[in-house]
C-alpha cells in the first residue's frame, strides 16, 4: 500500500479527500436540518383537518418516498431553474435563475428527507397521550402553546429513533451528489482514482470514512437516547 | 425547452427497454440478496462468538456503506487487485451489470439479514418451546413453526426492502447500464428537455412502487389470519374506521436502532 497517495499537499490526495469529506458533511447537515423542518410542517399538514393541506402533504410524501433519490436530484439540478423560469414567464416576468450544484443537492436531499421525516413526526405526534393535550387545553393554553410546550417536546422523544435512522439514511444518500458534479468525498476519490489509477485505495478509504461516520453516529445516538430518557423508569428499552 | 409530442412518442420504446432493465436488476438483486442473506442469517443467530461476529461485521459493512461507494469500489477498484486482474474473475468484474448486481445484492443482503433475524427473534418463544416439548425435531420446528411465523412477521419490512431495491437500481445508471434513469438522462442530452423525460421515468417508478406496496399489503392480509378477520369485520362498516388504521395495523417488529432504513 502506497501511503503517499493520501499525503497532504501537492503530492498526495489527502487534502482533496478531506475537503470532499467536509463538503459531504456540510451537505448532509444542511439537508438534514432543512428536511426535518419540511418534515415537521408536512406532518402537521397531514394531521390537520384542512381539505387542501392533507392531500397535498400525502401526495408529497408518497411521491418523494417512491421516486429514486437520484432522479429527484437530477430533476432539481437540471429542471428546477427551468421550471421556476417558465412559471414566472406565465405571469410575464423574465426571471433568470440558476441553481448551483450544492444548492440543488441540499434541496433534493432535504425534500426526500422531509418526506420520510413527515411520517416519523406524524407517528410521534399521534402517540402523544391525549390526556396531556387535554390538560394543557383545560389550563387555558392556546393550541399553539399546547403544541409548542407540551405536544412537541414529548413527540420529539418518540420521534428520536426514527430521526436518527434517517440521519444514517441521509449520510448514505450524500454520495449521489457526485453525479451532478459536486466534489464530495466520492467525487474527490473518483478524481484521485482517475489521476493515479489507484481506484481501489481511494474508494476503500472513502468506504472506511463512511463506516466511521456511521459508527460515530450510532454511538452518539445511543448516548443521546440515554440522555433523553434518563428521567424515565429503567426497564429495558423505554416505550411510550 | 419542452419537447413536442412527436419527439416524446419516439422516446417511449426506449423507456420500455429501460423499464425491462430496471425490472431485471430488481429481480436479480432480490434473488441474490436473499441467497446471501440466508447464508448470513445462521451466523447471526448462532451462539458461536466468531460466527456471530462475522455476521455482525457483514451487516455493519454492507449496511453502513453507501451504495454508490460500494458500486464504485467494485466496478472501478476491484479489477485492480492482482487476484482479479490475472484470473477469469477479470471478465466478470469488467461487466457493469455483474458489478451492479453484486453491489446491490450485498447491500440488500445486509438489510435483509437484519429483517430476517428480527422476524425470527419475534416468533413467540412459547410456540417454539411447545413444539420442542411435543417432541418435534429441530428441522420440523424450523420448517413448521419458526419459518411460517417469521415470514408473516417479516413481510412488511421485506416489502419496504423490496421498494428500496427498486429505487436503488437507478444507481446502476452511473455505471453505464441503460435502465430507466439512464434512458431519461439520454433523452435529456438529445433534446435538452430535462423535465419531461425525468418526469416520465419518475412516474414509471411511482407506479411500480405503488403496485408493489399494495401487493405486499394484500399479501400480508392474506397471510395473517388476525388481520384477515379484522379486514372482514371492518368491511361492513368501512366508513367508520379511521383512515390508515384498517388493514395494515397488525403486529409490527420492534425497531432496532441504527438500521438506517
TrEMBL record, chain B:
One of its GO terms (cellular component) is ATP-binding cassette (ABC) transporter complex. It is a multi-pass membrane protein. GO terms for biological process: amino acid transport. It is found in: Cell inner membrane; Cell membrane. The keyword Membrane applies. Its main location: membrane. The chain crosses the membrane at residues 20-41, 53-76, 88-106, 162-178, 198-219. Residues 19-217 form the ABC transmembrane type-1 domain. Keywords: Cell inner membrane, Cell membrane, Membrane, Transmembrane, Transmembrane helix, Transport. SUPFAM superfamilies: MetI-like (SSF161098). It comes from the Bacteria. Residues 230-261 are annotated as: Disordered. GO terms for molecular function: transmembrane transporter activity. NCBIfam families: HEQRo_perm_3TM (TIGR01726). Belongs to the binding-protein-dependent transport system permease family. HisMQ subfamily. This is ABC transporter permease subunit.
Amino acid at each position: 500500500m502506497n501511503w503517499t497517495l493520501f499525503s497532504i499537499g501537492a503530492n498526495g490526495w489527502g487534502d482533496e479527500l478531506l475537503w470532499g469529506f467536509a463538503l459531504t458533511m456540510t451537505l448532509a447537515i444542511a439537508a438534514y436540518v432543512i428536511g426535518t423542518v419540511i418534515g415537521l410542517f408536512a406532518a402537521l399538514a397531514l394531521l390537520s383537518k384542512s381539505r387542501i393541506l392533507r392531500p397535498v402533504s400525502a401526495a408529497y410524501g408518497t411521491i418523494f418516498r417512491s421516486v429514486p433519490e437520484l432522479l429527484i436530484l437530477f430533476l432539481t439540478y437540471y429542471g428546477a431553474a427551468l421550471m421556476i423560469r417558465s412559471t414566472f414567464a406565465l405571469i410575464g416576468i423574465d426571471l433568470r435563475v440558476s441553481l448551483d450544484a450544492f444548492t440543488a443537492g441540499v434541496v433534493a436531499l432535504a425534500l426526500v428527507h422531509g418526506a420520510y421525516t413527515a411520517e416519523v413526526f406524524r407517528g410521534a405526534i399521534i402517540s402523544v397521550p391525549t390526556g396531556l393535550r387535554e390538560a394543557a387545553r383545560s389550563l387555558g393554553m392556546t393550541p399553539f402553546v399546547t403544541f409548542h410546550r407540551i405536544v412537541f417536546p414529548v413527540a420529539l422523544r418518540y420521534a428520536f429513533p426514527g430521526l436518527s435512522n434517517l440521519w444514517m439514511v441521509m449520510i448514505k444518500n450524500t454520495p449521489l451528489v457526485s453525479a451532478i458534479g459536486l466534489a464530495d468525498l466520492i467525487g474527490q476519490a473518483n478524481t484521485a482514482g482517475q489521476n493515479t489509477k489507484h481506484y481501489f485505495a481511494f474508494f476503500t478509504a472513502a468506504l472506511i470514512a463512511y463506516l466511521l461516520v456511521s459508527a460515530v453516529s450510532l454511538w452518539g445516538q445511543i448516548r443521546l437516547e440515554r440522555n433523553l430518557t434518563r428521567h424515565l423508569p429503567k426497564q429495558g428499552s423505554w416505550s411510550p | 425547452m419542452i419537447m413536442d409530442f412527436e419527439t416524446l412518442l419516439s422516446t417511449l420504446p426506449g423507456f420500455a427497454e429501460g423499464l425491462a432493465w430496471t425490472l431485471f436488476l430488481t429481480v436479480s438483486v432480490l434473488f441474490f440478496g436473499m441467497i446471501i442473506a440466508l447464508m448470513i442469517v445462521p451466523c447471526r443467530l448462532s451462539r458461536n462468538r466468531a460466527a456471530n461476529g462475522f455476521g455482525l461485521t457483514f451487516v455493519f459493512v454492507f449496511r453502513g456503506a453507501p451504495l454508490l461507494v460500494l458500486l464504485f469500489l467494485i466496478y472501478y477498484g476491484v479489477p485492480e487487485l492482482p487476484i482479479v486482474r490475472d484470473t477469469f474473475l477479470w471478465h466478470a468484474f469488467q461487466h457493469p451489470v455483474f458489478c451492479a448486481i453484486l453491489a446491490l445484492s450485498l447491500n440488500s443482503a445486509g438489510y435483509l439479514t437484519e429483517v430476517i433475524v428480527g422476524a425470527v427473534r419475534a416468533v413467540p418463544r412459547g410456540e417454539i418451546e411447545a413444539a420442542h416439548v411435543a417432541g418435534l425435531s429441530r428441522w420440523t420446528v424450523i420448517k413448521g413453526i419458526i419459518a411460517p411465523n417469521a415470514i408473516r412477521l417479516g413481510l412488511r419490512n421485506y416489502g419496504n426492502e423490496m421498494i428500496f431495491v427498486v429505487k436503488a437500481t437507478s444507481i446502476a445508471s452511473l455505471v453505464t447500464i441503460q435502465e430507466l434513469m439512464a434512458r431519461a438522462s439520454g433523452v435529456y442530452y438529445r433534446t435538452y428537455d430535462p423535465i419531461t423525460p425525468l418526469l416520465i421515468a419518475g412516474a414509471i417508478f411511482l407506479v411500480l412502487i405503488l403496485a408493489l406496496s399494495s401487493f405486499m399489503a394484500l399479501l400480508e392480509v392474506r397471510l395473517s389470519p388476525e388481520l384477515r378477520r379484522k379486514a372482514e369485520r371492518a368491511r361492513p362498516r368501512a366508513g367508520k374506521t379511521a383512515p390508515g388504521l384498517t388493514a395494515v395495523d397488525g403486529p409490527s417488529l420492534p425497531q432496532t436502532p441504527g438500521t438506517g432504513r
